[in-house]
Amino acid sequence: MPTIAIVGAGPGLGLSIAKVFGDHGFDVALISRTKDKLNALVAQLAKAGITAEAFPADAGDSAQLTDALGAAIARFGRIDVLEFSPHAGLSMTAPKEVTIDTLRPQIDSLLYGAVTAVQAVLPGMLAVGSGTLLFTTGGGAISPYPMLADANIAQAGQRNWAINLHNTLADEGIYAANVAINLMIGTEAPEGVPYRSPDEIALDYWALHTSRDQAEHFIGV
User: Fold this and answer.
1) Is residue 144 a contact partner of residue 152, using CB atoms and an 8 Å limit?
2) What is the 3-state secondary structure (H, E, C) of the chain?
3) Domain definitions of the chain by residue range
4) Residue 76: which of 19, 31, 39 has the closest Cα?
5) Which CATH number is 3-219 given?
6) Taking CA atoms, which of 81, 102, 139, 178 is between 20 and 30 Å from 212?
7) Phi, psi (rounded to 5 degrees) for 211
């Protein structure tokens, strides 16, 4: 069985991605901070006939994340698809108010976490000449939102690196892409706020994995 590792797995988009890939024969490694919440997701996937396992770790802690992905590789053999979308919180910080202290949590989780995750799974992908790396950012990674300056900086760095990976790994059988989501994820939203359901968005991730041709996919209006 191929395996997808979802870093930042939660009951919204993460669960939907797990279901889509699971329905296509993937085992699922779920990684986020809280074991109880992960176990609830594992139980939901089991009811759908999908094999999943929880590997608790904070994406902002390189040692924890490395250990969790190592345990997932030991359990499933290797990681064929990495989907990286941890939530580092949304501190309301204007560009002129950014400091090292306000920026560090975003950089640790979104940028350093992405590098850590790829370091853990890429050697196995290169060894077999295939693999998929999918990174998720907000629309502010492309066109910054002034009130989310910290997240914008970290996500822009992650996006830049994802596209660099796309441009340099294709010849080695590895597909990398950034997914920029510039709307609310949910089945409803306040009037005038654009949104898409997580189940719909998850289908885009499967399409990217199978088509393997875009460096970036923008989800917005």
Assistant:
1) yes
2) CCEEEEECCCCCHHHHHHHHHHHCCCEEEEECCCHHHHHHHHHHHHHCCCCEEECCCCCCCHHHHHHHHHHHHHHHCCCCEEEECCCCCCCCECHHHCCHHHHHHHHHHHHHHHHHHHHHHHHHHHHHCCEEEEEEEEHHHCCCCCCEHHHHHHHHHHHHHHHHHHHHHHHHCEEEEEEEECCEECCCCCCCCCEECHHHHHHHHHHHHHHCCCCEEEECC
3) 3-219
4) 31
5) 3.40.50.720
6) 139
7) -80, -40
Say if CB 13 and CB 201 are below 8 A apart: yes
> What Cα–Cα distance (Å) separates residue 212 from each residue in 59, 61, 112, 117, 217?
26, 30, 25, 20, 11
- Write down the pLDDT at residue 92: 83
Specify the amino acid at residue 174.
I
Q: In order along the chain (221 residues), what is the average pLDDT of each group of 10 residues?
A: 96 97 98 96 98 97 98 97 88 91 95 98 98 96 92 96 98 97 91 91 98 96 79
What CA–CA distance (Å, rounded) separates 183 from 195? 5
Comparing CA positions, the residue from 140, 157, 159, 60 lying closest to residue 94 is 140
Q: Evaluate whether 109 touches 86 at the Cβ level (below 8 Å).
A: yes
What local confidence, expressed as pLDDT, does residue 142 receive? Answer: 94
Joined tokens for residue 7: 């870093």
Q: With 0-12 CB in 10 A as exposed, 13-18 as middle and 19+ as buried, what is 190?
A: exposed
